[in-house]
Amino acid sequence: MRKILATFVACAILMAVYAPAVMATPVTIGVVVNGNNGLPPVINYQFALSVDQNGGIVPGDDNPPYADSITDVRPIPGSGMVESAKHFKKYVVVSDPAGITNIASVYERLLDQTGGAIPGKSEVTATDITGNVAEYTEAINQAYNVNLITLADKNEMLYGLQSTKALYRIFVVDNYLTNHDTPGDYQVYFKVVSNSGLLTENNGNRLIIRYMPLRAFELDFSAVDYGTIVINQRKVISGDEDWATPNRPTIKNQGNVNILMQVSASDLVGTVAPIQTIPASALSIHMLGFDINSLSNTPQVLENPLVPCTPTQVDFDITAPLGTSSNIYQGTFTIEMAPIG
Ligand SMILES: [Ca+2]
Ligand SMILES: [Ca+2]
To answer: With CB atoms 3.0 to 4.6 Å apart as the test, which of 3, 32, 304, 338 could cross-link to 260 if both were Cys?
Structure first.
């Protein structure tokens, strides 16, 4: 009987010792939360890098010599009827007064130059790359190389993102604009939400993507074949708006700003002896309601602008002057963008 009684006493003592410790644990956690007064998460750093066509982030800014701290992104010209997609990555480094494990999610949305919504660009969830040291280290170093962040910013991020320091987490979102999206300063909205249910937005301090103006054009034809012509009679090679018909000339602005085109031509030279020429002045061009009735070696401007994203007809005509002999004539047009201003 004595033995059994002793055992019960021992159990009672153990319970008395351990029970308060078990009860204390949740109280300690509660103190941590209350000790921060439920403070919201923090957006500490944000930057963007231009992505090259191979997916790399070098140089990260497309407008050297990187004289400002805004990411310049140069559009890629379209090709035929296909729009290009110029990618860029947006990074945000966040923290939370209760520790980085309290961060639940980061959301991003690309907004237009006035902060308005862009059709097709909805709010997305950013990807946490805090565990990918190589990826975030390359991004931070590159942002510093092109003057998007300071040396102090770089050092602080690389320090605080270490898993042993755990001061920050870093998230990334890839996005793109097309060759026809208008140039200007696009705004990047970030929102970080904590497990405490609190959120912080970057309103008033939005990240800026400076989408550069792009002047580019493309032709669906590389030759204009007038075929057989009759002296002193006008013959027209008329254009269309169909990119698949090079025998009907089409021009397209493949950039994101209006451009003016200019045209010059050489004289047409007979390919069979005896050599004779048809002067360039026998050639005319017509585009968007504007005519140049007498081409020459000197570029002349077609004064109606070619607007982005619109296949446009170009008409050519020739009137061989009286006295032109039978022959096969060849010459060259030069169609190019007129200098700005
Ligand atoms: Ca810049
Ligand atoms: Ca065509």
So the answer is: 338
Q: How many whole angstroms from its chain centre is CA 111?
A: 13
**Same domain as 83, residue 164:** yes
Q: Is 262 exposed, middle or buried (0-12, 13-18, 19+ CB in 10 A)?
A: middle
Answer yes or no: is 12 within a domain.
no
Q: Could you say which ligand is closest to the alpha carbon of residue 212?
A: 1
**Domains in the chain, number:** 2
| Residue 275 pLDDT class (50, 70, 90 cuts) | confident
For residue 30, being part of any structural domain is answered with: no
Q: How would you label 54-73 residue by residue, b for 16+ Cβ within 10 Å and e otherwise?
A: eeebebbbbbeebeeebbbb
Question: How high is the pLDDT of residue 184?
Answer: 98
Q: Ligand 1 center to residue 69 CA distance, Å?
A: 6
Quote the pLDDT of residue 31: 44
* Structure confidence at residue 38 as a pLDDT band (50, 70, 90): confident
196, 232: one domain? no
pLDDT digits (tens, 9 = 90+) for 114-160: 999 999 999 999 999 999 999 999 999 999 999 999 999 999 999 99
d(CA 139, CA 129): 11
Cα of 47 to ligand 1 centre, how many Å?
Answer: 11
Residue 265 lies inside a defined structural domain of this protein: yes
> Which residue range(s) make up the domain with 69?
42-211
Return the closest-CA partner of residue 110 out of 45, 175, 201, 191. Answer: 175
Distance 300 CA to ligand 1 centre (A): 35
End-to-end CA distance of the chain: 110
Are 51 and 200 found together in one domain?
yes
CATH of the domain at 286: 2.60.40
